[in-house]
Amino acid sequence: MDNGRIDQIIDKHHGEASSLIQVLLEIQSEKHWLPREALKRVSEKLQVPLTRIQHIATFYKAFSLVPKGRHEIHICVGTACHVRGATRVLDTVQDLTGIKPGETDLDVKFSLETVNCLGCCALGPVMEVDGKTHGKMAPSKTADVLKNCD
Amino acid sequence: MPRINSTDELEKVRKEILSLRDPNKPCISICAGAGCLASGAGEVIAAFKAEIEKQGLTTDVDTKGTGCPGFCERGPVVVIYPEEICYLQVTPEDVSEIVSQTIKEKKVVDRLLYVDPATGEKAIHESDIPFYKNQERTVLCNNIKIDSKSIDDYLSIGGYSALAKTLTEMTDVEVVAEIKKSNLRGRGGAGFPTGRKWEGSRNAPEKIKYVIVNADEGDPGAFMDRALLEGNPHSILEGLIIGGYAVGSNEGYIYVRQEYPLAVVNITLAIKQAEAYGLLGKNILGSGFDFTVKVHQGAGAFVCGESTALMTALEGRVGEPRPKYVRSNIVGLWGRPSVLNNVETWANVPLIINKGADWFTQVGTEGSKGTKIFSLVGKITNTGLVEVPMGITLRDIIYKIGGGIPGCKKFKAVQTGGPSGGCIPEEMLDLEVGFDELTKVGSMMGSGGMIVMDEDTCMVDVARYFINFLTDESCGKCVPCREGLRQMHRILKNITQGKGKEGDIETLEELSETAIEASLCALGKSAPNPFLSTLRYFRNEYEAHIKEKKCTALSCKELISYYIAPDKCTACMICARKCPADAIDGGKNRIHVIDQEKCTKCGTCFEVCPSRFGAVKKISGEPVPAPISEEERIITRKSKEK
Q1: Contact state of B299 with A62 under an 8 Å Cβ cutoff
Q2: Are strands B384-389 and B78-81 parallel, antiparallel or unpaired?
Q3: Which of A58, B286, B403, B434: disulfide with B6, CB 3.0–4.6 Å?
Q4: Which CATH superfamily is domain A71-147 in?
Q5: The complex's ipTM?
Q6: Quick one: three-class SS letters along B246-257?
Q7: Which residues pair with B393 in a beta bridge?
Q8: Which of B491, B518, B548 is where one domain is finished?
Q9: Which residue of chain B is at minimal alpha-carbon distance from A116?
Q10: Boundary (domain end) residue, out of B437, B454, B471
């Protein structure tokens, strides 16, 4: 991501320091992570110390300071999904991908995250792959969903 | 869009919109809420549009994507107007039949109707379905009637008339008085009287004030705010503008969690539309009142649902709570008076203004007035959003509306109030729902999550789950919450893994007491609730885990074993083929045996074993029976003997 694009995002938010989180969210959604160079640029433009940006980037769950895989798997472990067996779905996906929540595999193919509620509680357990929600999951169905990712 | 400069002009625009609409023109409403979209509503909408074009009906039939009506379990939900025929679980394959049968021939497609599992009767209209029939929908009811992306649709059902009334007929004092009189209490969970909060801000001497919508719906298992924000964003906006007028604020914020992308899109669009009509901006409806609204996306932190943390996050900083020596309605965002209310609270405001406080107080209990939306989820037949009058019993919600527990299982507990709430056991199901009533039994109203648990749910594991959630979401500012919860989670995890020991319960109680006493914000103060309430009502489960190493619900992975009953196994090989760990030994005509060493306890075998055999068993607190001898494992089929 070049500085021009970052400047564009910052200008969109009128260059206000209070919009720091909104700026970071936009960078995150475009790049899927927050590269150090990008954060430096934000720090300079918004006149916010880099340490404070780091504090924010590590505090909020939406941000990642490491690159993400080509396919992002989110497993909902909200209460409704939990009582319907989300843990077993998570265990199976961990076994299949070889990574734990928060990790990305060596081929940079999959990133695995747990999320606390996607608000599709009626369909629990829910698994989201690249933004597409798969409802009523069972351990035996996870392999079929992941098979379609290359 | 023309700018609307006065109340008269607003009514003129409304009349114009209505005059262009034929109430008898068929309209296909398809729920486009996140739940139905996940079940394929997007494809259904596309299929309807294509089919209508194919059949040359484009000018005769309207299609619209509406908000969530709440019956997510049976989504995608389609309602055909004007007859109000309700079809459930519609797929793109059903679309051509619906168009040719229902739209053209005015015939009902029987197989897509709701069937009452008890009586076998079919329900044609939404209002005939027991799930809806027993609700009282005043806030949610418009979700299915309007296109969530159209301000004209909102105007056509009388939208923004409360705002017009406020700006032309009422003074700010009168608005505050009306809300106070209605006894509306904060729907976000704490139940603080909304009118008093507003009054405090209004009377504060500062010139600049803020009004904020709290749409950081972080409670797992709760999604009513999402449904309102996605389905009827203008109603929240209208409430917010009225609030701004009442407290003397010209700036509003909507704090939405980023996990709800559709809600962000719809509310942002709603703001643009309202601005274009002049319902936001300078001199609204010629009253001289100015008001602007900004959307701020959360970045994933549960604690930001707490009022002071949310305001800190709005300022662009890390969302840590602040001490509340002075309430945030006096010293809040950027040190100025700030009224923060939950989405559902704001959505109630236009209704109260339009219909009056006396109408609102007709419904409810002594301390809790009006209706409340709950998200009824977990082990329940009809999952979805339910809006009920305060004072209804839990039993009515779970059995009359929710249809009871699926799969002939036994009800165990209902968890209310989100992660910091509590579990309510069966003997208290006749409890009337209200803010004070729920607090009395050790739970709380919270934002309205209602998670039903059956006999398969382990209560120790539920406590562990919530404490883990809160440990993770603790911002780390106060030691009793940051460290205390971590230790509580460690002990609870040990108990669920069979490593519990005498004295654990006492240590947990001690840690709970400290967290309640010494944490700054509500997150820490109420964090031990899930443990305390499960201990209060389900102490026997804790003791079984610790003393007998037994999980009575057969749920804790480390305490259970899977076992194939030799007398029931027919060697069908389904489980052996599906086992991801290759832990099942068996073949044709050989009774299957699980290799306990290899078994990962994923439960796949239990799930796939056909129910007519029911050979796979879960056992806990007892040793797995030794496998039978090789000779005994051979099954000789009768047909082959001949």
Answers
A1: yes
A2: unpaired
A3: B286
A4: Glutaredoxin (3.40.30.10)
A5: 0.89
A6: HHCCCEEEEEEC
A7: B432
A8: B548
A9: B220
A10: B454
